[in-house]
Amino acid sequence: MTGALAALTLPLLVATAHADALIQSIETDLAALGYQTGPVDGVETVETQIAISQFQADNQLEVTGTASPQLAGIIKSKTSSSATTSAQAAAPVETEQECLQRKVAEAEQARKQKKGLMSLFNTVSRTASRYGGGSEIASDISEASRDIADANATKEDFEQAARDLGLSQDEIDSCRN
User: What is the distance between the alpha carbons of residues 144 and 104, in angstroms, rounded to a whole number?
Assistant: First the structure.
């Protein structure tokens, strides 16, 4: 009879241990969401049942006040999405004025880079005409730089044109202010 009693008691103990872990998990997650569960100890108390009921009501679930694996999953997903939302809320939000200031600074930097690249093209053009590059090459370089400037080209356009002319990245970088 003792063996039979042990055989019946063991599954009950395993089920109780599993239920305690489930309740502790639910208590932990509910507490993280701001619900008052009482001590987070895996013991289902009236406070735990009230917290479960409040969570169920707040989330349009059937209010039973009972712990279940399904409820634990729902609470866990709310905890995860709450953590993501908190992290997003904690990230600094750029004001409109800060955004505009940043954009103006970026535009000014791009203008300076464009000016530097135009200076590079002019120098290349003068050098080509001075050192036997022929007036035709100098004229082509000068025309290309005017076309790019007239088209309101970006600094990337100038950099690509400089690369096309055989300038190294170091030579291009030397023009940046």
Answer: 28
Q: How many helices (H) and strands (E) does the chain have?
A: 7, 0
CA distances from 74 to 9, 55, 78, 130 (A): 31, 10, 6, 77
Rounded-to-5 percentages of helix, strand, coil across the chain:
75, 0, 25
Please give the C-alpha separations between residue 29 and each of 63, 80, 85, 120, in angstroms, as whole numbers: 18, 9, 16, 63
Give the Cα separation of 54 and 51 in Å (integer): 5
More confident of the two residues 19 and 20: 20
pTM over 0.85: no
Which helix (H) or strand (E) segment holds residue 70: the answer is helix 69-90
Which burial class, exposed, middle or buried, applies to 23 when counting CB atoms under 10 A from its CB (0-12, 13-18, 19+)? buried
Give φ, ψ of 87 to 5 degrees.
Answer: -65, -40
With tokens 């039973």, the residue in question is 64
The structure tokens 């954009």 sit at 103
Model confidence at 110, pLDDT cuts 50, 70, 90, reads confident
